[in-house]
Every structure is written in structure tokens, then in C-alpha cells.
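# nightly structure sweep
# worker-07 picked up a monomer target from the shared queue
# config: single-sequence mode, recycle default, output format = C-alpha cells
# input follows
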Amino acid sequence: MGDPAGIGPELCIRLLHESEDSGSTEYVPLIYGDAAILEKVSACIGVPIVAPVVSPGTATEKPAIVHCATANLSEIVPGRVQAPCGEASLHYCLEAIAQAKRGELDAIVTCPISKEALALAGHTYPGHTELFSEHFAKSETCMMQYAPDIACSFVTTHIGYVEAAQYLTTERIAAVLQLTNTALRTIRGTVPRLLVCGLNPHAGEHGLFGNAEEENIIAPAVAQARQQGLDVTGPVPADTAFTPQSRARFDAMVCMYHDQGHIPIKMVAFDRAVNITLGLSTIRTSVDHGTAFDIAWRGNADPGSLFHAVQLASMLAKKKLPEPLSGPADET
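# output follows
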């Protein structure tokens, strides 16, 4: 359900309605969250609850709300960062994770959490990606933002810009290339063409900008991936990587840091893109946006990204992402 004070509860209510209205049997949504919060949001937005409430671990073949009881939510204020909401959002995830580990779920789809609220509650996870990697990582993992017309995977994510270059290694980039290749072969059924962005302006311009990261770190990873049979181009300047012509030619861009890819993908496909954690032993997708506290509990949230995340998770669960080619793991 995500952060109770954000738009996650509304999105979940609308997902239940979408499932009921469509009559689809492609997936059975189980909402892990607080039933009382969902009732409050239902009253605020004028959309009734259309699923029963069950306890965690209850076997059900129909859509349901899995009530995950949490303390101190009765007085929360919608649209604000609050420690009890951070604690609750983590609790919902851990309940779903436990059930997935028992083989009772085929995929997990997450609604947005507040990283600040998580920190206020005393938890150091910078995001869902790191939480799920801790529980389900097979070796390397990475974030991918995916839409049919644009896709980006990320070598680094939730760290400061000043730290990004320190976390770049040839081994890490090569692993992300393998994960991206494997995922796109599964999703699209074709051999993907990957474009690798440089770290520095103009991709360093042969060492003029930066510390020759393109020549010493990124280019060797590209060469290694090519030797393993991947169709990879780069490193190229990031400011030309996302033009319409480039997006028509390549299936995904491999980005060195968070905003290098998040800005273009949200400009092109904000309401359609899906966040996927690659390299896990279970399927995990997510919306590509945040908690939207400014419109929480008002009935204005667009559920499009959640619908796409659920549909992609359902498809991936049926196909099951295969193992990427093995390679050296990066300790960072």
C-alpha cells in the first residue's frame, strides 16, 4: 500500500475496482496495508471498498485486503511525512516478503513510500530496491525503469552525486548490462540493443572532463559485454542518448546515476513507466512516481503507473526471468 499518508491507499482502492470491473483472471490483487486507513481514504474519495479483509497468510483466490495491523496510525495526517507511516509502509512490505518467501505470492508490486518517513522511523533503507535486494538478491541487482517506448537501467541509484563516481566499477557496469539484456529478452522476446551513457559531460571528451571514467571504467565494461555476445554501444554523451532517433534505435539506456535516466523517462512516460528490480529471486515491480503528498486522499491520483506495474508483474511471473550470464560480483 505504500505510505499511508500518500496516494498509495487511493491507488490500491482503484486497482481493486479495476480488477472487479474488468473481470480479468490474469492476476489476483492482494493489498497489503491497513484496512482502517483504506476505509478512511475510501470515504474521502467517494470510492467504496470492493474486497474483503483477510489476515496475513489467509489463503484466497479472490482479490482481498490483507490487513497488516500497525500502531499509531489513527491520528496520522494525510499529506505529511510522519514516522508511524514510515514504520507502517515497511511493515506492509515485510509481510508481503514473508509470504513470497513461502511461495504464496507470484509477484510483489509496491506503491510509493517516503524515504524520509522511513528514516524518521529509524530505518536506513534508501528505497524499495535496497530492501528487496536484501531479501531476494541472487547476486547483483539493479533498478530498471521500463515503458514500451523507453527503458533505463541504473548502475547507481540512491546516493549523492558526489558519491556516484566512487561506486562505478567495470564489474558493476558489466553486471547491469547483463541484467538489462536478460530482462529485455524476457519482456520483448528479442535481442536488445543497449546504449551506455557516459558519466561526464560529452562522455568525458577523451579525458578532458572528469577523471577518465569513460576510458578506464565504462568502456572496458562495454567491451566485456560485447565479448559475451551483447549488442552494446557506448559510452556516449547522455545529452543525446534520449533523442527520438536514439530511442527508436536502442531498446534501453544504461545510466550511471539516478537522474540521468529518471528525468527523461518521466518526461516521456510518466504515467506508463514501471520500476523493476532486476536480479531478484522473486518478481518486484513498482510505480515510477512518489507519494504525491500534495494530492493525498483527494481522489485526484492517476493509477495508470500502478495498473501498468501490475500487468508487467503478472507477465513476468508467468515467464519467470531467467538467470543472467554469470560474471564477477561487485562488492559495493
